[in-house]
């Protein structure tokens, strides 16, 4: 389902880009307007693709930490080896069905115009309540599986998942606090500058801990699993973890400039945003140094190549947020159409999600399709990031050039026209991503069909073998004789 949600999201992104370039293409229907499809695209990408990968990856990390065999990627075999209560197994099924219901109901509500208006939490209160129940169930299953581990030391990935689960529950509930006035409508509990503080500051640039800590956990897990190498520096990982725990909730402080909040809070947020650069770069450096021990694997394993690209994208995303903490750059970039590049959404969320999906599935039937998908994903991310940076710098600099009478020198049409070529480049990058996910869906479908046929053939051979052994044992047994005949 994560692949399907991701494909729908990228197809929507391509369509939105086409509407931006040629507005006449957009239908005059409220349900399909740009203002409703844009938050829908973010919802499907972050929650449909990213959230599904985080939940599935969390279960895989917990099982691997118990089994202590990183080569085990078959989820069904892992569950069979771990003693889980029937209630826990039912909760696992509930998390799958419940999360898909959250994504689907949230998407329908956004398209229908029922939005909470919260930052990256557009779904109505009823969907938020279901999402909270799903996260509680995920936490229960995760800690229930971890209880069965034999070693006291937890992997680094488990640290980040535990912090992510705690943070996402606290912040999701805090952001979504509201008074329901209908089945899909509610009034936010906080208003004005206090609501801005909670949405931007406490939520941070990423929605809670789900994508901040959850995707970092998946990165740590897959870097060590795919490369078969230990982490380069556990001390660096520990330091980065505690610094992120203290600073990640301040990641949205750069978005608070020129707001109604007091000046001291904006200055404090600027300092914390700059400090956030250290753990982000340290985390990326730790992963890249781990892969450096087997650098030749980048050429033979496309998933390791994608992991390296995700680590670089994570460093770029953290660098962007830290630079936005500087008031001068903040004022320059937020005057443009694309203040933030898709290094975080495509380079980290989407890339880590597809690598996790490939990691959990059986070996792909077509290695050529896998390599093509990896190449398209990297090229698409580079094109989108370059186009976003070009648009931001060009439009931001044009808006800040005054005329002799003090008005802006360039008109709105001139500023928008400058972004036309970068937006066409971005369209090419998004098309690469959509085509890559389409190839992935095809490859995964064929692989699962072959895997199902192989399992059925194996079961049939085992059944025939057991039947032949039983028949041979019966034929080898001598017929029973009566005791009287023996003495006769």
Automatic annotation (TrEMBL):
Composition bias, Low complexity: 465-488
Keyword annotations from UniProtKB, A to Z: Membrane, Transmembrane, Transmembrane helix
The keyword Translocase is assigned to this record: no
Bias (Basic and acidic residues) ranges: 453-463
Region feature (Disordered): 453-488
Span of the signal peptide: none
Annotated transmembrane regions: 45-62, 94-114, 126-146, 158-181, 201-220, 241-264, 270-291, 303-323, 343-361, 373-401, 421-442
Gene3D superfamilies: Cytochrome c oxidase-like, subunit I domain
InterPro entries in the cross-refs: Cyt_c_oxase-like_su1_sf (IPR036927), Cyt_C_Oxase_1 (IPR000883)
Name of the protein in its database record: Cbb3-type cytochrome c oxidase subunit I
Source organism per UniProt: Cobetia amphilecti
Lineage: Bacteria, Pseudomonadati, Pseudomonadota, Gammaproteobacteria, Oceanospirillales
